[in-house]
Amino acid sequence: MKLRLLAAAAVAALVAVPAFAQPKTIKAVMHSDLKVLDPIWTTANIVRNHGYMVWDTLFAVDENLQAQPQMVDTWTLSDDKLTYTFTLRDGLRWHDGKPVTAEDCIASLKRWGARDTLGLKLMSFVASLEPVNDKTFKLVLKEPYGLVIDSLAKPGGSTPLMMPKRIADTEPGKQISEFVGSGPFIFKADEWKPGEKTVYVKNPDYKPRSEPASGLAGGKVAKVDRVEWLAIPDHQTAVNALLAGEIDYIEAPPHDLKSLLLADKNVKLEVYNKIGAQYVYRWNTVVPPFNDERVRRAAMYALDQKSFLEGVIGDARYYQTCDAMFVCGSPIENKAGMDGLVRGNFAKSRELLKEAGYDGTPLVMLHTTDIAVLTNAGPIAKDLLEKGGFKVQMVPLDFQAIVARRLRKTPAQDGGWNGFMTAWLSVDMMNPLTNSMVNASCDKAAFGWPCDAEVERLRDAFARASDAESRRKIATELQARAVQYGTHIHLGQYTLPTATRSDRLSGVVTSPIPVFWNIEKK
């Protein structure tokens, strides 16, 4: 009897103790492991994704890709179209508790503007950036520039993320060493283990906008306590983990494993980036053989879009061939320069290589091994190039190693490179000023360093154009010249469904970039 009474008392005591709520954690597998933390220093998509977790932006695009104020409360433009005045929202604070100031934003814009393709163009029109008070600053132009707000809302590549002045003052070519943001999540640097996991926790002091979340704009409400990005490079292992309920989210499962996911009623496959992405073969124009325009054109003939997309994606529901360098479906879609370029014309490719005196030295082609949408892209591009008369030496590397190596201008056989397959968000490619592949400003251009005065003249004209019709006409001329010169070759568009545990997660935002605010977990 005495034992029974003691047991009853113990049970009663346990019931009386209040149950503490377990932290809600989303466990996600992203398209790549995070090894670099500075979203201004690199254009890598995974680093950009990381940037949106930690930092915030002055403006942001909604799900219709229209620019909306984000950190900015109000803004005005002077009658002469030269002075923009921006006032920040109340309650903006850095993760260390200090208020966000106009000086912080000015320093952040200057650092971004020293590296990003669109930032460089914007800053070439800027006369000054001036603080008015702690919450207000002015951007003064040398001449009218119609893409100021679009530039500040730029969603992809190097995004103009706001950082504390002491961090933003870091020399643009050097990576930052502090990761203090003002966004809805806080980066846990003490738990970051490259090759294993990246951890973010809810920022309890974040003040979201009052509007509903829409794309990258609106109210960024963190509805979970913690987000863990787990590094699982083997795609089958990641899919098995989702099916077993060990993780909640896979950003970009490969197409050949979709059938396994669709067979589970607790798994949802949904395309959240509706505009998708564009495949690109990028070559290095400063070293042989792609320093010869004829060799670049030979590769254009060899790299057949349809064969490439069938091999890499396979499922026609998720890809489309497209001759528009600035993306099919965009306001400036055009086929200029592509009419006479018959893809898969291997005989023409070999003819041009012979004319150029190509000596058969193998192309050093960097091959991404750890990103699902690129693992098949390299071998298929290699096969097409070889059919066109090239010899190709494929160098397998993880993506972060490629990010470092592609910055080298050394000869390809001495640790440099000749070309590689990559993919860019379509939202980055649909504007000549955000499309870094078409930037032909020589040493200031993106890796590959195309150099063509006419391309740059047309990009400047596009920036100055005051109306949509003028921009469309200029974009057509620009594509024709970029194709003739050979800045790169675009290889079609694709979309990727994201896989989530539908029995646990809801509220995933339709956005060109994966974000974790607004997601609820049961």
Structure write-up:
With 522 residues, this protein is an alpha+beta fold. 30% of the residues lie in helices and 19% in strands. The strands form 6 sheets. A 7-stranded mixed sheet has the order 10-11-12-1-13-21-14. Strands 16-20-15-19-17-18 form a 6-stranded mixed sheet. The two termini are 42 Å apart. Mean pLDDT is 93; it is low at 1-19.
Question: Which descriptors apply to this entry?
Answer:
19% strand, 30% helix, Dipeptide-binding Protein, domain 3, 6-stranded mixed β-sheet, disordered N terminus, alpha+beta, 7-stranded mixed β-sheet, 522 residues
Task: Put the structure in a nutshell.
The protein is of the alpha+beta class and 522 residues long.
CATH class of the domain at 277-494: Alpha Beta
Q: The biggest beta sheet, please?
A: 7 strands, mixed
Flag low-confidence runs: 1-19
Please give the radius of gyration in angstroms. Answer: 25 Å
Helix tally? 17
Shape: globular
The level of helicity is 25-40%
Here the CATH topology of the domain at 277-494 equals Dipeptide-binding Protein, domain 3
Q: Name the CATH superfamily classification of the domain at 277-494.
A: Dipeptide-binding Protein, Domain 3
**End-to-end distance, in Å?**
42 Å
Looking across the biggest beta sheet, what order are the strands in? 10-11-12-1-13-21-14
Structural class: alpha+beta
Write the layout of secondary structure elements.
Elements: H1 2-16, E1 25-29, H2 45-54, E2 56-57, E3 59-61, E4 67-69, E5 72-77, E6 83-88, H3 102-113, H4 117-125, E7 126-131, E8 136-141, H5 148-152, E9 161-162, H6 165-168, E10 185-187, E11 197-202, E12 226-230, H7 235-243, E13 249-250, H8 258-262, E14 267-270, E15 277-283, H9 293-302, H10 305-312, E16 319-320, H11 346-356, E17 363-368, H12 372-375, H13 377-387, E18 392-397, H14 399-405, E19 419-425, H15 426-429, H16 453-464, H17 468-485, E20 489-494, E21 498-501, E22 505-506, E23 520-521
Parallel strand pairs: 1-12, 1-13, 17-18, 17-19
Antiparallel strand pairs: 2-9, 3-4, 5-6, 6-8, 7-8, 10-11, 11-12, 13-21, 14-21, 15-19, 15-20, 16-20, 22-23
